[in-house]
Amino acid sequence: MASTLPRLTLSPGREKSLLRRHPWIFKGAVRSVSGDPQAGDTLEVRAHDGRWLAWAAYSPASQIVARVWSFDRSQSIDAAWLRARLTAAVGRRGGELAHPSTGCRLVFGESDGLPGVIVDRYGSLLVLQLLSAGAERWRDAWIEGLHALFPQAALYERSDASVREKEGLPSRVGPLSGASPHGPVTIQEGPARFLVDVRSGHKTGFYLDQRPSRAWVRDHARGASVLNVFCYTGAFGVVAGLGGAASVTQIDSSSDALRLAAENLRENSLPAPDEGLLRGDAFSVVRDLVGEGRRFDLVILDPPKFIESKAQMAGGTRGYKDINRVALGLVNPGGRLLTFSCSGLLDAALFQKIVADAALDAGREARIVDRLFQGEDHPTLLSFPEASYLKGLVLRVD
Ligand code: SAH
Predict the structure, then answer these.
(1) What does the pLDDT look like over 122-134, one tens digit per residue?
(2) What is the 3-state secondary structure (H, E, C) of 227-282?
(3) Cα(316)–Cα(337) distance, rounded to whole angstroms?
(4) pLDDT average, residue stretch 149-170
(5) Both ends of the chain: CA-CA distance in Å?
(6) In 14-42, which positions are buried (b, 16+ CB within 10 angstroms) versus exposed (e)?
(7) Which residues pair with 328 in a beta bridge?
(8) Where are the alpha helices (DSSP H) in 275-347?
(9) Are strands 42-46 and 52-58 parallel, antiparallel or unpaired?
(10) Which of 60, 177, 211, 233 has the highest Cβ tally under 10 A?
(11) Of 271, 218, 222, which Cα lies nearest the Cα of 244?
């Protein structure tokens, strides 16, 4: 029986990362694949000497050619087993779910033992995002599992992330069950209300990962003039306003994002003057602000992922250094710069070095007074350090 299962055999020595329970198998580590598996099928993974290692989902189109479901040979990878994993992931968010209308990530892929599966909750709407052939293969299991866990919730699919192309998967967006949202849905986060566009917003609609940093901004904004660069739908601007900021200026290149940013301010009974929402390329708008002699007590820099692949390392590094250098020039002496990178390929130590170089070039002395990370609904499985992608430095700038 076992010999008829599709099998992936690794090249000699390439089993090391699997023995450390890292869930990815790269194309270059594979000696052979037998049994004619199709995309998304479950394979048994063996070392070159035949040692059994794992059950994994096959992604023939991708450089990551298989992703591990289980390191336990006695498990059978079927819909019931996968639904149990889904239930366990949701169970780990028990505390978060006590707040019925709050946005929260319920499933975070590899960190929840479910590679390629993302589920975000926006109040009574769940958004499913499938990113790998294995996740796609079991689509019905996720849908049925989510229905069983949240019988009242509507379900929407946002399987349109660009990584799906690497898996050879088409993009798929639309309602799966329940009413399709006609406009943005509203979530509550502490005292803040946010409008979330799940149909066409970034990711599944909102940067849920920045929740701890939003709390930081709310706690430190009182009386401050705040500049929110790469503001998207203005979440940091809202919490700055609610925290008592004296003024909030926000920059983004997307007019759709800025329109929702203005609505978000009004939703929270905060002023939304035109001059507080600047549309344009942040790299040139911040230079214009420097030229005008503008200064701020708190500058927030949360750029998009500048480094998507190793090939973008040099260019992305320059981008981070440049925008941080200019932004440092906008901080009042004694003020704060809150600077982020969400590029997983850029580790925290290198990011810190880039910011240090930027300060040197800007001629500003700065001190790290705090560090921020993605929230606890985006955990990092210890055997999968790649899950830690978001890092932020809070600098006091003199
Ligand atoms: N801070 C936001 C998330 C930022 S996402 C939040 O917490 O919700 C990055 C944003 O940068 C996106 O809204 C995108 O439209 C914007 N963006 C990308 N390139 C840009 C550029 N060159 N200039 C200005 N905005 C840019």
Answers:
(1) 999 999 999 999 9
(2) EEECCCCCHHHHHHHHCCCCEEEEEECCHHHHHHHHHHHHHCCCCCCHHHEEECCH
(3) 20
(4) 95
(5) 70
(6) bbeebeeebbbbeeebbeebeeebebbbb
(7) none
(8) 282-291, 313-328
(9) antiparallel
(10) 233
(11) 222
Atom of ligand 1 nearest to the CA of 233: 8
Confidence of residue 135 (pLDDT cuts 50, 70, 90): very high
| DSSP type of residue 201 | S
State the distance from the centre of ligand 1 to the C-alpha of 40, rounded, in angstroms: 33
Q: Is the dihedral of CA 250, 255, 256, 259 positive or negative?
A: positive
CA dist 391 and 236 (Å) reads 16
Residue 2 has pLDDT above 50, yes or no: no
Q: What is the distance between the alpha carbons of residues 210 and 342, in angstroms, rounded to a whole number?
A: 10
Q: Which two tokens stand for residue 211?
A: 């929740």
**pTM given for the model:** 0.96
Residue 240 to residues 205, 246, 279: CA-CA distances in angstroms?
21, 9, 19
The model's pLDDT over 76-104, given as tens digits with 9 standing for 90+, comes to: 999 999 999 999 999 999 877 777 668 99
Output the pLDDT for position 1: 44
Atom of ligand 1 nearest to the CA of 257: 13
pLDDT at 95: 74
Sheet holding 30-34, edge to edge: 24-26, 64-70, 52-58, 42-46, 7-10, 30-34
| Pocket-forming residues, ligand 1, beta carbon under 6 Å | 202, 207, 210, 230-233, 235-236, 251-254, 257, 281-283, 302, 304
- The SS3 call for residue 333 is strand
d(CA 82, CA 69): 9
